[in-house]
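If you are new to this repository, start here. Below is one unmodified record pulled from the training split, so you can see the exact layout before writing a loader.
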Amino acid sequence: MLLVSACFREATDGDGTKDIVVSENWLVLLFNELEKQGITLPERFSEDELRRFHIAANGDFSSLLSSVKKTIRWRETFHILTLQELEKWSHLVFWHGFDTMLRPCLVIRLGLACSSIALRDRPRFGQAVVSQIDHGTIHLTNEEDPRITVLLDCHGISPFRFPMQMMRSFVTIVQENYPNRLGVLFVVRLPPVVRVIAQTFIQLLNQSTKQKLRFEGESYKKTLAEFLQVVPAFLGGKCNCSRCKKPYSGSLIQAGEGSRSNTSTGSGSPIAGMDFDEEVELPSPYTCENAIRAAIIGLLMVWIFVAFLAGMNDPTPVS
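And here is the target side for that same chain:
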């Protein structure tokens, strides 16, 4: 059990006298309640981690208790891949240097994943993304700013064929289990129609959210060069690291790797909670009806990204 110090707040009145006001010690209350229910906190839950859950719950104790218990149960069923297991996914999701604020940068090649991974193996890809976030938040973030930067490369994704359910499942898991961890989300190389919709839609969001949800157009190389210490080679940078030099090989992911037993979403599964289905698919992009559908899908994509941002960031309203 963590040692919890008393929480105090100093208030200064008009005379300059300091009154020590004891604030509600929610940490003590949380530990007591978990102990009553026979629940032991995993080592992963430091005081700093619990404070992020507290902020995400807007100080509501019942919501805090519920979210912490839910995450504990999730960790009992979700298998976090080891670094060795993650190696086979390293061409699709990997940590790549830091941004200019010294926050580690997670690169997710969503477009390449969608074009190269069979549907039955997509839950394993989602598992790899979550596992990388888990490893990075533990080992790569710094105490001054324990957030991460995410670079989502959508090259190769069609607005008429988007893995909507995969993204929803992934976002839900991240929202619930890694609150207040996102510094900024860059989305690059989206299909033009989706990018236009996204850039129009985010104008309705508050300034704080707009700054952290970045849909970059043709000038993404310049933006990334200004924000990241090292830009990946496949996005126009001059990086020569092993991730950038390593050629893509479809053999890295064996056909049928996601077996029926591994892709099950039932309790006890190594990827429990990852619910994936067929992507949204439209028959042809050349009709007015399908153009409208593409716009609707684009809006849904934007909402998914906004939800991802809101879940991993502060509880400030997104609109």
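Two things worth knowing about this chain: The CA atoms of residues 189 and 218 lie 8 Å apart. The beta strands are 8-12, 18-22, 93-98, 104-109, 148-153, 161-162, 182-188, 213-216, 280-281.
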